[in-house]
Amino acid sequence: MTPYRITMAVAGFNLADLSIAVNGxxxxxxxxxxxxxxxxxxxxxxxxxxxxxxxxxxxxxDFVEIRGAQLENGLLHVVLRRELPEAMKPRTIxxxxxxxxxxxxxDEKAA
Length: 111
Prior knowledge:
Distance between the termini: 58 Å
Strand order of the largest sheet: 1-6-5
Order of helices and strands: EEEEEE
CATH architecture: Sandwich
Structural class: mainly beta
């Protein structure tokens, strides 16, 4: 099966600020910056990267599994894969018969 991927831009957040949780069919990605900066009284007219907390929730289809997550250059990639159980996978059934099709032989006495 083809893997799926969720990619989110999380610039300004590091690994300690992010969390990924799965509860049933719900995938929750959250980010919260630790308030380690003292309030020095500075006010910004413009701050290019927002640092406010966020939470995104995704509903996963049946049999979707989380294969991994990677934080790279401000992008969080979550890799998903749908794995059907063997009982649910489609299968082919062999058809028995003659290669040229079935032949019906008529009884001459009955005609």
